[in-house]
Amino acid sequence: MSKLNTDALNKLRDGASGEFRNKKGYTHYILTCGGTACQSNKGVEIYEGLIAEAKKQGVGDKVQVIKTGCFGFCERGPIVKVLPDNSFYVDVKPEDAEEIISSQVKGGKEVDRLFYKNPDGSPVQKAAAHGDLPPIGFYQKQQRVVLRNCGIINPEVIEEYIANQGYIALQKSLFEWKPDDIINELKTSGLRGRGGAGFPTWMKWDATKKVANDIKYVVCNADEGDPGAYMDRSTIEGDPHSVIEAMTICGRAIGASQGFVYIRAEYPLAVHRLELALAQAKDYGLLGNDILGSGFNFDIEIRLGAGAFVCGEETALLRSLEGGRGMPTPKPPFPAVAGLWGKPTCINNVETLANIPAILVRGGAWFASMGTEKSKGTKVFALTGKINNSGLVEVPMGTTLREIIFEIGGGIKNGKKFKGVQTGGPSGGILTEKVLDTPIDYESLTQMGSMMGSGGMIVMDEDDCVVDVARFYMDFCVDESCGKCSPCRIGTTQILKILEKITHGNGDEADLIKLETIGKAMQKASLCALGGTAANPTLSTIRNFREEYMEHIHDHKCRAGKCKSLLSFTILEDKCKGCGMCAKNCPAACITGEKKKPYTIDQSKCVKCGECFKNCKFDAVVRA
Ligand SMILES: Cc1cc2nc3c(=O)[nH]c(=O)nc-3n(C[C@H](O)[C@H](O)[C@H](O)COP(=O)(O)O)c2cc1C
Ligand code: FES
User: Fold this and answer.
1) Does any domain span residue 153?
2) Which of 343, 379, 539, 555 is the most buried (most CB within 10 A)?
3) How many domains does the chain have?
4) C-alpha angle 28/30/33, rounded to 5°?
5) What is the pLDDT of residue 227?
6) pTM above 0.85, yes or no
7) What's the pLDDT at 606?
8) DSSP character for 83?
């Protein structure tokens, strides 16, 4: 590859645009999901199988098989899409490769059995065009800005990004706009940080720009430590150039010539695609010295994090990037003033950055036309838990939780009852049915006692115990607290001990007051937001589900059956047929009896795993 100037880039884009793939004379393009979820579900075998089948059936030169980023609908992955028919196939298996090639590529007939079927069994119609979302309930209320290229382009081929309006925003930023114009466009857009705090992006860029210093840095926060969140990973896996382009624009706007992507080492696929993308951008002269002949220099390096939650906090991240221990430092000074190695540093989240090229191409006003009064644009949520359609969901801000959970998510698994939804990870809280119709944005989520956080959304049903969930998050925070400040170090440990006491049936009502007192003290006195928000799941569950805490405390009962110490299993003599299935499945060998006579459980040996309950066909085992 030779270095491009802006005319050469335009030519490359014009030549590539839209029909980039068709130039090669293929009749079919098969897009296979190359996201982590689909890859771990035989996605690679499907991809390789399709290539092998095409060759075997003599159409190797007619079909191009392409690995894309995540399609979003991970619940029904691996996903395969065939162009130009726009056939959207779900739950594809490696053995389906043969029929996709023989029936569709050779015979012109789609493989109907692989189409998504609506819950009522009716087949789903196809999207009108590549790029349109398929008319499946899961996609109906979605609008893809951040994920605009995921599932559309091959993230490993820079020309595909360029063909889809890639690097236009950079060209404008280098040749048409002054730094202030870029920042003003971001101001018009109303974009706020997607890493959790929701700080206006333009203000951060402006603040870093205004600090005089010869050396400044741009940092991309790809740490993504929230349990259940994977939108940043998928964005990098599916569209790494959008982040690279945005970081370079940021460098131009604030006057920096070096950027770093801080990404956790547990994301090998994202790291691999990012490395490839950086190398390609450098080869084309879109990174490095004299970018596109503009005289502007900017380079990006990757730094791997070891996977500590606190290293996502910006000041701790910067200490880790410097090679030190990832511990937060007090703010001010903010990174914009004194960040990496004491230099002005602009640090942004992956999703925030991925929005930026789209905003600069389509205009700030376009972005601001989506969302709510104070939260513009879209937000990507990682919808997981007891939900029918788990996956990545990008919706305009202001969409309600009910729309996300019951329309996009298709409701609760196995017809169970909705109990609550955890938003914002360990920093958020569990929201109840009462607020399902509230349009969600940064402010409304905080008002409801939770947080946007980075966008994890974990749905819970009647079989989840909220006290146990609060205990789980506090256990996570005890492990992840860096221990530097005592409110967080001691507070998290004390709250965990009390929650454990309650889940073991040894709590009393005074414990609830203690939990609230410690939680509030942590909110006020912790050094960073890890400690400042760690009590949120506990406080929100006490507020929203007080009666369940009371049941644990007074009745020694866990209605969800999750707190093992409060459980007992017994066999009803009159119902037991003596089939022995309970004893056969008991891992603790604590059930005894004779065939055709009632069996009994030795309570002193029972580990409360519930296998007897699950395996009894006669409802003779009762859980209390
Ligand atoms: C404990 C803790 C963990 C955090 N983890 C992340 C993270 O994984 N990714 C992220 O972008 N921001 C994370 N943040 C927020 C960052 O400190 C910072 O606000 C953000 O990266 C700024 O980018 P934005 O303005 O684009 O949101 C975390 C904050 C705290 C307190
Ligand atoms: S990883 Fe394939 S659809 Fe998400």
Assistant:
1) no
2) 379
3) 5
4) 165
5) 87
6) yes
7) 92
8) E
